[in-house]
Amino acid sequence: MGRYVAAIDQGTTSTRLILFDADGRIAASDQREHEQIHPRAGWVEHDASEVWRRTREVIGGALAASGTEAGEIAAIGIANQRETTVVWDRESGEPIHNAIVWQDTRTDGLVRELAGEAGVDRLRSHVGLPLSTYFSGPKIAWILDHVPGARERAENGELAFGNMDTWVLWNLTGATQGGVHATDVTNASRTMLMDLETLEWHQPSLELMGIPRAMLPEIRSSSEIYGEASGTALGGRPVAGILGDQQAALFGQTCFGPGEAKNTYGTGSFLLVNTGEEIVHCEKLLTSVAAKVGDGPTTYVLEGSIAVTGAAVQWLRDQLGLIRTAAEVEELARTVEDNGGVYFVPAFSGLFAPYWRDDARGVIVGLTAYARAGHIARAVLEATAWQTREVLDAANAVMGAPFTELKVDGGMTADELLMQFQADVLGVPVIRPAVTETTALGAAFAAGLAVGFWSDQAELRERWTLDRRWEPQMDESTRAREYAQWKKAVTRSFGWASEG
To answer: What DSSP designation does 51 have?
Structure first.
């Protein structure tokens, strides 16, 4: 058995390789960015061949920098940006079009057409998701419709589809020389094409979107040996774990039981609540697979995505010039005792969960002559915490048992004022782990379990270590009063952007 597990974290802006030791600590890492391609407004693409080159570079870089030999690697795990869609030629290994990224909105007309009179929820009871530009299915359909001859080639089995996990796995295990064409249940659950109960491709969804089954990868568990790496510095090592990035963070936070939740604070925030073996539907949140370890049971998740959290701090820095660095927002917010009655709703391009309002736009309300920069900075931080509270309320409303704590990760968790306020408005402890690279850690945990590097999920819980815990300090009447004010502020953002 090797000394380390290698995790490939293929993200939206960069790719990383992190080596973890048996204690779940980082032993080495390397990171490379790739180009963001914007052919038109609302279109976002990646060159999948460049992403694979960057993946090879970080594998070589991390191993060389740490002096690690391939033989010291027990297994390889993959975590990835979800929904981003690649279609490639099986024989040449070349993509037939740039990858269409999860943020891309070019399929909005197609989505409206697919929804028709049946509405955006016509597939939801089976796939857990509303029809949306966000997911992979419409992106595949767009490529088949816009690349000459693609549909016929796909039907003949000449083309392969994959999200980034599948693309990396296929290339890592030999590509045109016997590459493994597979995905895991978590990534498949974000395509709009998988039946959540059977964990198989959902034929009515494929027929609705005109997607040939022949191009789809095999759906496997999140933790098993898919194949052996070849052609890189990791040659000969088993690839044994795959999780979509948010599910990987949930797994890395060891949120294995029903009601356990984590929030990742980035540009936006992704809050996931484990619902155990029960598929829970909620019109305000998305239903996906949390994980499936080998032959074990499938666990499910409710997910709420919040469009703007860290991006609001960047806006204070770059557009308003109130701070010079993102870290300064906490310092500025501490210059005042409270928000001074000021609330900030960062609906820059509408609101995601739990409102799903495209017509909302950002507002700052409650301004008086008393308000100053510190109050606005504080209102920006508080908006992140209130939005998180709203998503958790939506999950609690449909869950059997209310959650008792929130595990947190991502860049904004360094802001201790925000973390304390988050605990205050939730009324439960907020917990930050020692290893905040939870996405890569989750992929490593899944791969390590498959090869016996770690024995079981109980051992993984032991490997997870606490860095800091915040207990709620706000009394219930203050919390209720402030929350009511926040909700009033949110309604002021509605209906601002109208058609025409």
So the answer is: H
